[in-house]
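notes to self, project folder thing:

trying the whole complex as one job this time. last attempt i did each chain seperately and stitching them together was a nightmare. four parts in total, labels are on each line so i dont mix them up again. if this works i'll redo the older ones the same way
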Amino acid sequence: MTLPIDATLIAARNDAEQRAVRSDYAHLGEQLERRGIQIDQVREQVARFGVAIPSWGVGTGGTRFARFPGQGEPRHVFDKLQDCGVIQQLARATPTVSLHIPWDKCSDWGELREAAGFHGLGFDAINSNTFSDQPGQAHSYKFGSLSHTDAATRAQAVEHNLECIEIGQQIGSKALTVWVGDGSNFPGQQHFRRAFDRYLESARQIYAALPGDWRMMLEHKICEPAFYSTVIQDWGSSLMAAQLLGPKAQCLVDLGHHAPNVNIELILARLLSADKLAGFHFNDSKYGDDDLDAGSVSPYRLFLVFNELVAAAKEGLAFDPAYMLDQSHNVTDPIESLMTSAIQVQRSYAQALLVDRAALDAAQEANDALTATHLLKQAFQTDVTPLLQRVRLDGGGAIDPVATYRASGYRNRVAQTRPAAAGGGGGIV
Amino acid sequence: MTLPIDATLIAARNDAEQRAVRSDYAHLGEQLERRGIQIDQVREQVARFGVAIPSWGVGTGGTRFARFPGQGEPRHVFDKLQDCGVIQQLARATPTVSLHIPWDKCSDWGELREAAGFHGLGFDAINSNTFSDQPGQAHSYKFGSLSHTDAATRAQAVEHNLECIEIGQQIGSKALTVWVGDGSNFPGQQHFRRAFDRYLESARQIYAALPGDWRMMLEHKICEPAFYSTVIQDWGSSLMAAQLLGPKAQCLVDLGHHAPNVNIELILARLLSADKLAGFHFNDSKYGDDDLDAGSVSPYRLFLVFNELVAAAKEGLAFDPAYMLDQSHNVTDPIESLMTSAIQVQRSYAQALLVDRAALDAAQEANDALTATHLLKQAFQTDVTPLLQRVRLDGGGAIDPVATYRASGYRNRVAQTRPAAAGGGGGIV
Amino acid sequence: MTLPIDATLIAARNDAEQRAVRSDYAHLGEQLERRGIQIDQVREQVARFGVAIPSWGVGTGGTRFARFPGQGEPRHVFDKLQDCGVIQQLARATPTVSLHIPWDKCSDWGELREAAGFHGLGFDAINSNTFSDQPGQAHSYKFGSLSHTDAATRAQAVEHNLECIEIGQQIGSKALTVWVGDGSNFPGQQHFRRAFDRYLESARQIYAALPGDWRMMLEHKICEPAFYSTVIQDWGSSLMAAQLLGPKAQCLVDLGHHAPNVNIELILARLLSADKLAGFHFNDSKYGDDDLDAGSVSPYRLFLVFNELVAAAKEGLAFDPAYMLDQSHNVTDPIESLMTSAIQVQRSYAQALLVDRAALDAAQEANDALTATHLLKQAFQTDVTPLLQRVRLDGGGAIDPVATYRASGYRNRVAQTRPAAAGGGGGIV
Amino acid sequence: MTLPIDATLIAARNDAEQRAVRSDYAHLGEQLERRGIQIDQVREQVARFGVAIPSWGVGTGGTRFARFPGQGEPRHVFDKLQDCGVIQQLARATPTVSLHIPWDKCSDWGELREAAGFHGLGFDAINSNTFSDQPGQAHSYKFGSLSHTDAATRAQAVEHNLECIEIGQQIGSKALTVWVGDGSNFPGQQHFRRAFDRYLESARQIYAALPGDWRMMLEHKICEPAFYSTVIQDWGSSLMAAQLLGPKAQCLVDLGHHAPNVNIELILARLLSADKLAGFHFNDSKYGDDDLDAGSVSPYRLFLVFNELVAAAKEGLAFDPAYMLDQSHNVTDPIESLMTSAIQVQRSYAQALLVDRAALDAAQEANDALTATHLLKQAFQTDVTPLLQRVRLDGGGAIDPVATYRASGYRNRVAQTRPAAAGGGGGIV
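result (full assembly):
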């Protein structure tokens, strides 16, 4: 058995570009040296950085209007793992995979762990699903799950989360991510306070079942699929729930789950102050929960998120954020989008490492707004491409992952064994 | 063959409530009399008002996350027509149905027309669909339809619209509504000006095929399914296209297709000034294109829309707006939601008829903002429920359509012949 | 000394309208009786309801672009109090006034208390101001106040708040409202966590000085005057601060201080769950913190706020919300706007009292969304005008306060002693 | 008489940095060479680029809450011109100034022209003001100007614009920018269609007075100072007005005048298609019309604007956009902010020149969204700092304008002759 992309192809393509990369890297090193930064130290930090791939991300996404599948869509969790293997082999920034139950259930978790190991992948947080019904399910989630008015439905949803924890333990996960679609579409449909109380009651049962070294990551969302109210609508509700549940409960921030104009980097600063930041679901958005590729529309915002994280780490705050890409790839090859997005996230992290923190502290103290913001811009404007290329090169990946992937013919190859997926419209307008 | 709801049930329920309705109506008449309004004249105008039902509206809607069907979902256009018949029989405010091709295609349009006639229904604008692929379709709409870069795909989309016109002619429609999902998810994906030019080129071919007494209604939308840009993103682009196409092309306003905070009643005023207002797709929204029930979240906004329309009509502007409900019923019985929504739209129209236009003109001229806005509020705060009840009662409908519908057992009855629909998740996150 | 509006004028105008009011009231009573509601009980509850007037509200407001003063602008707190007296005399819904320091400082608080007593007015929460500089002030608030990087500036801001408490004690206030303009205009300008810590440190000193029966009301705001970040940007940060300060600290909700689309009634439900709801600053908005008249754009939203409050009160939750109007009257006579707005708030409260709570509970339990939302709409659509008119009539006020005020010639009268105010542009674009 | 900043200071500071700049420039040249781009050609294009400074921009701005002036605020148009001279001397990207009447009126326009010439400055579009009242003005603009219900007020506003044209002719302007604050704060306050008609009637009179080689630039704005509706609320209304006025009327896009989430680069593409793009007012915003420094929050959006402009120019479209900074500098030294912002705008233009247009065309044709967006990102991620530094160096400016400005002591120097400006609060909440 061999890794999905031929190593000699990677090497050949890298050879053609190496010289330019090394020249660019050297010149970037000089520039950073002038600012008092050792490029190799930054490179080492960046090399240790990773962001998880959601198993569902390797399939083509869609909207309520339609889904247009691509070639060679993964059929099951093993196919998905293989696609994740390609991403990690070429881009070297995604060492873990995050599963979604029930879709990723399999009959032999040991076999799955072994397959992951072969690709050099581990498992990150496990995700439960109580926002859609599965065939044969006793109680429907049409009107909610953890917060449903009916006790049996809540119990079923709790039970599903407990199963997720069990599965997670078998594959080495250390966290359960809980996002529910619960909410309402009409004023009056739901009793806001009672729904929140029921959510808490259910969440407490899940919390009680968490292994000692696990976290429970609560994910808020302002709307969709519920369009008038949601039970955990923003970080305030998420914080309240996490406080009431206990120290292992923390708040997960998905970049697309907020009201328009909201300052997300400020929210994460508050969650850090409250010692309740669980981590991030990265994506980008222009209008709502668009689930576009991370940094594809607002790269500076992504940088500002990492600027807060790097500052907090440097100041010695104890926190351990989970990073995952959570995107819907509707018009691109998911493998290409995930490689590109992982590198974009990595880029933001690298740039944040370049901020002159001492000078920034001084400018902030002196209320020299222009200098303070310039220091951030200086870091953001720095083209760290050669640094990221070197990290991949050193790690055995591809200098240009997308071009290498395209050259490999992987997608056509798997399309021969993976049958064409059904697309078409949801018929839902 | 009989109408779907037993007439004796309707009569019996009406009898129990008639006395209260007549007393309330009489008192409302007294109140309006004091304001110089003859209630019977208003009632007659309201009785002539109607809003179309979209054929797809009688099925349970969903989101990209899941769809939770109800009992007795309609199987085909004849089932849909029967459900529309129930709505019209009880609520008397929805004399027409708007079809969606290809979903509503049938082998015998004459039979369909006859079925509609039996329910006292006509056909409103016909809607094309080029936002999702159908089985066996030659060219995919994944990357657009009327504005696709590929000429063959554009030709296919044009051809589909021509077929819609032909169908429309067979059932008595007088308008084609064109909404496309075309757009992009990434900066750079689409050449904005060229895509617009291609859209126009395709639209011109459709326009050329319009019968003499038809209209082409262009529908704009800020986003979804495309999440970075759309080809007809707002009323400005829609106006440009309609101007370039010709007098039969007009702009359709869906209340949920705008950026946050946008003043929709002002947009319709501008379209009236430009003589380009085609009509409306009614629904309500809190966050985006939520497709909630009309007036369920922002009833005053719906009133303000009708305030503009009534004012323009009174001033003698020549325009003939098409009205349709365009909602996604995810958590209610679609028949109940459509009856309630039609009555809400009718209510807004009735209230707008009560505005003292002469006093409003005077207050506007004098910049007496407080009086001007009070005149609108006075009309909006008037409880026109008895007036609407009388319109239904006089028309043979039900004073309380939802209660009567529930008492009729219609949903259970059709569930016996209509098989349970598959729900489940889109698996799309 | 007599009340500002001639009692015989009020009586004469009321006489002309009384008969219609009593007829309407009687018929409304019949309608409510059919729903199992005793109108007189509702009327008594409504008669006990009051909302505070902010002293600054009786002056004409403006924007950064310009201010266009009206005739007879109040010169000082005694003029303001007289205008508040007019409002309360005619509309009977605003028994208290909320002062703003330093603008309302006067040399004899006893005299002010006496003047208020003459008008039947008391004093509500007192408001500090550290968002603008005063002549002769030692340290500028250009870069913040309670969260300023400079300790001396923070101390000055704390000191000002302590003075406000002292003044409040002299006039009978029981709460201090703290809103700060602190924040930043550039990414990087402010260290988010440190600024929050500094705010807390200052707030603790103010909290420590609160009399035993006082509350400290923290007001959040997403932006303006700071346009990139604010220190208390949303209810989440406000909650964190209130929790850290102690039980006397609570969160004040201004309806215009949120991101677009945010569900405010849901926020207040969460604050009720957390036992941290201080109260409201009422106004309306279409685009941002527009400070438009309460309920002038979104009357249903205002109703939904009261629906939550009435439900919570009925369920026995212990809370005591402060209500204040906080509006900017740029194009109307402030007295007219404040009377109208107070009545609009009162209307929303009255309508919320009409909701059939038992039926709503049942519909919510059964996930009958359509019935649940209909129950709210039924209450909202009820025209409670005659009930509100009766409350004013019984309380010695005017059936039609605006018409009576206009007939009184009050504005022209005071314009003779109050000199014309300077307007003009801020020169700020 | 000498230029405001000592040339020897500039030279000395440049000398210290030149070597690094030349090294970075050379390496950037190598990188671009690999992409087939000649850096010197790009540099020449960038050197020809300029953006106008608004005369009001050199004064400290404020909000309705407060204004906190800095030291040495300019007293009159000659002081303003001197500050603009500093900006142009150091940053070499702002060759023109845009005046605002009546604030910039002076008794001798020839003297002003001469002063401008001394600083190497010309005059760009002239701006009228009918959104605030001036002392002694006959008719108030409280309720509108060009669209006022009163004919005399409209005539006064037209007259003011005609005077602006006359002044503009004396100083060499070739365009009049018309922005009005006209609109309404309450539903019903204004008759939408009539107000638009009155605006057009007034605008036609101004248009008729335009010299043959002038343009009339119409500026739209969604809200503020009017908070319910505005007369030219968006580009759609602006387009309608420009079409009705004639070919010399075009639409000006201020980046902060749109609804949340709106795609501005798409709007400008539409205006290009309609041959109606006048130009831009550059600034940045997070929440509304925040008037933050250009590119300070969303640098990628600014790049995407220039990407459209560069593409259109390359495709041979005939258009001549006017560029102006329109910002409110509340917490920075306006000279520093304007230099930085001009360079940020210049940076975006330079980056847009680097996009591989042929490859982008191909990717767009092939619907290769990932490649297309990567091509934009590649250009945006390129650090063009050394190129911009070289442009300044070659033009006689400063490599680091802000540091040089600070070293010059200019602000302290002018503070000695310019008296401290009054700040304080607007008293408007």
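what i see at first glance: Chain D touches chain C through 58 residues (CB under 8 Å).
need to look closer tmrw
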